[in-house]
Amino acid sequence: MEQLMEQEGNDMDLAGGGILRQQQGPAGDGEETDPTQYYENRLKMLDSLRSAGVDPYPHKFEVAISVADYVAKYSNLGAGEHLLTVTESLAGRVMSKRVSSSKLFFYDLYGDGVKVQVMAGASSSEVAETEFYKCHSVVKRGDIVGIVGYPGRSGRGELSIFARNLILLSPCLHMLPNQRTGRCTTVAGKTTREKAGADCWVPGIGRNTEAYVLKDQETRYPQRYLDLMVNHQVRHIFRTRSKIISFIRKFLDERNLLEVETPMMNLIPGGASAKPFVTHHNELNMDQYMRIAPELHLKELVVGGLDRVYEIGKEFRNEGFDLTHSPEFTGCEFYMAYADYNDLMELTEIILSSMVMELTGSTKIKYHANGADNPPIEIDFTPPYRRIDMMQELKSVAGLDIPLDLSSDEANQYLAATCEKYGIKCSPPQTTARLLDKITGHFLEATCVNPTFIINHPEIMSPLAKWHRTQSGLTERFELFINKHEVCNAYTELNDPLVQRQRFEDQLRSRQSGDDEAMALDEAFCTALEYALPPTGGWGMGIDRIAMLLTDSQNIKEVLLFPTMKPQLPG
């Protein structure tokens, strides 16, 4: 034991002079650099272990403490201090392997994103010297190992566990990408920077994905496990996403909203204007549709007397995907009886500003809206948010004199001519609602960097929203835009069953003219309205887009653990 401590002090003091070295090769173990040969050698290693009566995949290892708890528990140890009478057992993944001139082995062991150094020498091992070197020669980067040893700090102050025994729990058969040295440590829920680098990141500040170990998106997204393994910053993205959902759930629970679940498969695709995915129910021998929104079911629950309900879950839209759209995404919708869109605008300001404050410590964040190569912009979530009246703003900003009767051919022709004049693309069918949506995006949405409400949409664009109480032809609806993208959509709900049925019939005509995103007529929902839906406010938010903002992600795939990807062709 004394010999190990003496060697440790010498090796660590001379580390800067090259006495302590990382073994060569991308695998960090001196192996060949050919991935195929590496894999074959690892398979041979498994055969060798089994022939020697060693199970390379043991069923159980008793873990007494997690790596994170170990780091927190022994963080106060001084340089060179060792607790020889204390025994701890922990497990994790080897992400770095180094060997000293005096045959001491050093490993960086990671558990749930937290690192601790493992130091192993033959003099402190419970096994014979021959077995010790044989055991450590087997361990490679990526392996899952169990460590039994005592706590301490090296002579240079590195918190370590000094191994008495190392057990291979699950070998990694593939060569890992080279590992960086910059990393973050999470202790008691707090993220701290050990070194500047790609791994050091907290919500609300810019990220540097160029410093990632593994950069290729065609590898990172389908093999998310590898991405999480070597790009330690990535796990903080998904922790932040989880915190966003937890915050929303807590916020709504505290206001007496009831979380519910509604069907994922429906006879009619309703609740939003979108093209659905079609599936088939074998037992019933009928097609069904993956839900595009839970809205209609949630409002039926309000009809039934559940005055405040919400749902957080998946929604599916059979449309193209780009940097801000995914065919499978997560949304939150809630419905509050006796609330209107004015109440919901105030609530939106509260939920977003308090969420950003809780997660980042400020109501202002940095976001690389123009790409990682350009300086980040600042987005300020401090209320009150700017409000833009859609039709009034189109007239004052763009000088558009849109005909008042939006259902007329004249209005449609005017909007089509406007798109042509300004080079605004609108794919067929060029319905009035679609044209107006594109024009709004061009003139108004592009100005919405800080959170901004666009309010009072025309009825022709909002088949489920209630008519405006003072402005004919408009609805009490708002969309919240941040960084030029829609994040929330809400309105005073239409609760007149006769008007709702008429709106559905108007949508049906749009569908018959070729708009496959127009809503279908849902008689069951209209019947539910006939039993009386109280005055109600309804609200929806895209979880993924909020996660993008708070994690400085410019691609929605960055915040989806397993995003939809085009299959890669073999070869």
Automatic annotation (TrEMBL):
Chain spans, region Disordered: 1-35
One GO cellular component, as annotated: cytoplasm
Residue stretches making up the Aminoacyl-transfer RNA synthetases class-II family profile domain: 238-567
InterPro entries tied to this protein: Aa-tRNA-synt_II, aa-tRNA-synth_II, aa-tRNA-synth_II/BPL/LPL, Lys-tRNA-ligase_II, Lys-tRNA-ligase_II_bac/euk, Lys-tRNA-ligase_II_N, Lys-tRNA-synth_II_C, NA-bd_OB-fold
Classification via PROSITE patterns: AA_TRNA_LIGASE_II
Assigned EC number: 6.1.1.6
Localization terms from the record: Cytoplasm
Any one Gene Ontology molecular-function term assigned to this protein's record: lysine-tRNA ligase activity
Keywords recorded for this protein, A-Z: Aminoacyl-tRNA synthetase, ATP-binding, Cytoplasm, Ligase, Nucleotide-binding, Protein biosynthesis
Reaction(s) catalysed by this chain's protein: tRNA(Lys) + L-lysine + ATP = L-lysyl-tRNA(Lys) + AMP + diphosphate
GO terms of biological process kind: lysyl-tRNA aminoacylation
Primary residence: cytoplasm
Family recorded in the similarity comment: Belongs to the class-II aminoacyl-tRNA synthetase family.
PANTHER family for the chain: LYSINE--TRNA LIGASE, LYSYL-TRNA SYNTHETASE
Protein name: Lysine--tRNA ligase
